[in-house]
Design a protein that fits this description.
Strand order of the largest sheet: 1-2
Shape: elongated
CATH class of the largest domain: Mainly Alpha
Distance between the termini: 31 Å
CATH topology of the largest domain: Farnesyl Diphosphate Synthase
Mean pLDDT: 91
Oligomer: single chain
Strand content: under 5%
CATH architecture of the largest domain: Orthogonal Bundle
Structural class: mainly alpha
Helix content: 55-70%
CATH superfamily of the largest domain: Farnesyl Diphosphate Synthase
Low-confidence stretches: none
Number of strands: 4
Number of helices: 32
Largest sheet: 2 strands, antiparallel
């Protein structure tokens, strides 16, 4: 497709531009802080600091940033992504005060004042109805209003807004009376972390506490640039000045809410976002190199000697490293981050600071998705993080995005398809968040990366729609669309094939279409054996497949055989062109085995035969036909696929595990339908052989088997020591397993005519909705 090549070349050019800005041969090329969204609020406080020798701004770059970064349309400063505008209220007022101090930017000051006057009632009003505002907003807004009054900045509010503001001052007084200066409470920083906005009447009595804190730390107050700026203006402390100078040197213009940040965590988060956005093929070489460098230093930190805040950062970083490295096949062990399970101090800190540690717990929970057999530490870490994530839904949603919790806990990682996951991350306003700051979320910032991701997704959609049209034509050509019985699943099969694979996009067209064609044919043939065909018709079709000669077939059997022969010919011919090898006999034998297994099940059903569980699974793991799709596709993608592992009975352990897991997943969601039809499956067989059990007991038994086999499967798919299949082939196995997990997660979505339609629209048709 001509448009595809043009579109694709533009995207690669944009990717090269991002590479030049981000990577060099051996590391990230630029300061990691350049990825972090600046805080207008904290930058404004640094801009207010006066150099006592020159009576000019000590940090001119911060003032220049304010002059250049107002949203001129609305008159605000700050991050509007969080939706409610809370942070923009305090950020805008702080920036207005900074400009007012230096008598600069009068037009910007005017627009900023109008924004504050116009929006205060709306922003505070949302909380006024509930009876109280967030603590940070109470402290910051009231403190800034006092400073505005001292500097002669007159703000005009409505009567109702004035009532709300008076209420905020009462709330602030209650906070100041109730809390001690250095108390660290549930989900909150101590009062001293808000020094810049505390009542000026407190300054005289707290000055000694400020100096003591500065001298015992790195020169900062709780790593807060705004509080530390206030501390410098009050004390002129040299350590405090050195901290701020170091900060401005690293962040020459806009500064973050917290400094210092864990720089390795920033880099890992940036690479993680690239993966979440589906940009692996653009940055594959650079990301691989980065992960190898990460692995060299993996697990070298001395956690025991770290202060509690550093331990929390280390837990976040280590859990993210574990997941990224294990996903890429590196040999990493759970103890690299599960050490926190034996550290009572950090566990207590995490429990009492759920809001601040939300993204840390989310990272821990995601890391436990990749659990291998016998990894009890990961089970314990999963349970611990899950409980905290579930508790966090009751916390301020501005700081704890409940969407992330619901997505992670309600839909298992194995049941999520890559293409839809990429869309979710691109569209989600919080996909670039990596930590929680004093007043809002800390974000990785890269407009170019988001732009590349959205255009790449649109390109994929355009290509997928064209392939879908060709597939519909193929279905009509071979008479599978109006065959008159069973399930019509053309859209479902193509959606699964296109949305699941992580293979190189441009070289995977044959994989997607052949995967979909095989799925469509398997559905039609399975329905023919289950519902439509007579014993004679089923035997005739199976014998024709065994001979691979269908001239004598009639009716439905002939339609199925002709389509089957076309799929095998196309696969074999493509494989011969790509790799020079003839796999025709191997492909035919795999399909022969599959048809024989379907005939076996049909005969069991018609004769009323009840097999043993062993006999059932031996046949059932073939009849589910997962290997029938995966093995031919693997041959297409890898010239060095070991052909002896294409022979029935000689499959790789990874393939066998895939066949077992997919069979049991299907059985869990189809036992009611099969019971009504007088058929058997593993759930019904288990209950039949244990008369005292209820159906729920048998379901639980099969679920435990699936869980065990799934962990074994994941280990085989990710680690070379368990399976010597080429990596691309392992990826295909993993993708297909995720398709089954998606179709049979808690219900049978595949048999529903409507269950998948919304997902299909999102994957193929609906334009992507990018946040501003």
């Amino acid at each position: 497709m001509k448009f595809e090549n043009c579109f694709s070349s533009d995207l690669y050019a944009l990717a090269e531009e991002i590479k030049r800005e981000t990577f060099e041969l051996d590391s990230f090329n630029i300061n990691p802080y350049s990825f972090v969204s600046p805080s207008a609020y904290d930058t404004a406080w640094l801009a207010m600091i006066e150099d006592l020798n020159t009576q000019k701004p000590m940090f001119q770059g911060c003032l220049d940033w304010i002059l250049s970064n107002q949203n001129v349309e609305e008159g605000l400063w700050g991050n509007h992504v969080d939706g409610n505008g809370d942070e923009t209220l305090t950020s805008t007022l702080a920036c207005v005060l900074a400009l007012r101090k230096w008598n600069m930017g009068s037009l910007l000051v005017h627009k900023g004042k109008r924004y504050i006057e116009k929006n205060t009632e709306n922003i505070i009003g949302r909380y006024y109805k509930k009876g109280s505002c967030p603590r940070w907003l109470v402290l910051m807004f009231t403190g800034l209003l006092e400073l505005a009054q001292q500097r002669g900045l007159h703000l005009f509010f409505s009567t109702r807004a004035k009532q709300m503001i008076n209420n905020l001052f009462f709330q602030r007084q209650d906070i100041v009376d109730r809390e001690k200066l250095l108390d660290v409470g549930f989900n909150r920083q101590p009062l001293l972390a808000y020094l810049e906005v505390l009542p000026s009447t407190l300054y005289a009595e707290i000055q000694k506490d400020i100096v003591d804190k500065l001298n015992h730390q790195d020169g900062s107050l709780f790593q807060s640039p705004s509080a530390t700026a206030a501390a410098l203006m009050l004390t002129h402390n040299k350590k405090c000045l050195a901290y701020l100078q170091s900060l401005v040197k690293r962040c020459a213009h806009g500064v973050p809410q917290i400094y210092p940040l864990n720089e390795e965590l920033i880099k890992l988060s940036m690479v993680n976002i690239m993966d979440n956005y589906g940009l692996g093929e653009y940055f594959g070489e650079e990301v691989d190199h980065f992960l190898h460098e990460t692995y060299k230093n993996y697990g070298n930190e001395d956690v025991e000697r770290m202060p509690i805040c550093s331990k929390v950062d280390q837990l976040h970083k280590a859990s993210l490293e574990f997941r990224m490295l294990r996903m890429s096949g590196f040999d990493v062990l759970p103890r690299s981050f599960c050490w926190f399970l034996n550290d009572e101090e950090i566990q207590e800190h995490l429990k009492t600071n759920i809001e601040c540690s939300f993204f840390v717990m989310l990272s821990v929970y995601r890391a436990t998705d990749l659990m291998f057999p016998g990894e009890c530490e990961l089970e314990e870490a999963r349970e611990f993080s899950r409980k905290l994530l579930e508790k966090s839904e009751f916390i301020n949603e501005k700081m704890v995005p409940s969407f992330h919790i619901k997505h992670e806990i309600s839909t298992p990682w194995m049941a999520r398809l890559k293409h839809l996951d990429h869309r979710m991350w691109i569209e989600d306003k919080d996909s670039n968040v990596f930590s929680v700051g004093k007043a809002s979320l800390l974000r990785i910032y890269s407009d170019k990366l988001t732009h590349l991701a959205s255009r790449n997704f649109e390109l994929r959609q355009a290509v997928y729609r064209c392939e879908m049209e060709d597939l519909v034509k193929w279905v009509k050509t071979w008479g599978l669309n109006d065959i008159g019985f069973g399930r019509e699943k053309t859209a479902y099969c193509y959606f699964a094939a296109s949305s699941s694979t992580s293979l190189p996009f441009e070289s995977a067209t044959n994989v997607r279409t052949l995967m979909a064609k095989s799925g469509i044919l398997i559905t039609v043939a399975d329905d023919f054996f289950d519902e439509e065909g007579s014993v004679d018709e089923l035997e005739a079709l199976t014998k024709a497949v065994l001979r691979w000669e269908g001239e004598k077939l009639k009716g439905y059997g002939k339609i199925i055989f002709r389509a089957l022969d076309d799929i095998v010919k196309e696969t074999a011919e493509t494989c011969r062109k790509l790799h020079g090898s003839d796999v025709t006999d191997h492909l035919r034998n795999i399909w022969r085995e599959t048809f024989e297994s379907w005939l076996c099940e049909a005969e069991w059903s018609k004769k009323g035969h009840i097999p043993s569980m062993e006999e059932y699974l031996r046949n059932g793991m073939i009849s589910i036909a997962a290997h029938t799709i995966v093995l031919p596709i693997s041959c297409l993608m890898e010239s060095c696929f070991p052909q002896h592992k294409l022979k029935p009975g000689n499959y790789d352990n990874l393939t066998t595990l895939l066949m077992t897991v997919t069979r049991l997943l299907n059985d869990l969601q189809s036992y009611q339908k099969e019971q009504e039809q007088g058929k058997i499956n593993s759930v019904l067989l288990h209950m039949r052989s244990h008369c005292s059990l209820e159906i729920e007991d048998s379901i639980s038994y099969i679920e435990k088997i699936i869980d065990s086999k799934r962990r074994d499967f994941v280990a085989h798919a990710l680690m070379d020591e368990f399976s010597d299949l080429p990596k691309l082939c392992k990826d295909i196995h993993m993708s297909f397993c995720k398709v089954f997990e998606m179709f049979f997660n808690k219900k049978n979505r595949y048999d529903s005519d409507t269950e998948m339609l919304q997902d299909i629209k999102k994957a193929l048709y609906e334009p992507i909705n990018i946040r501003k």
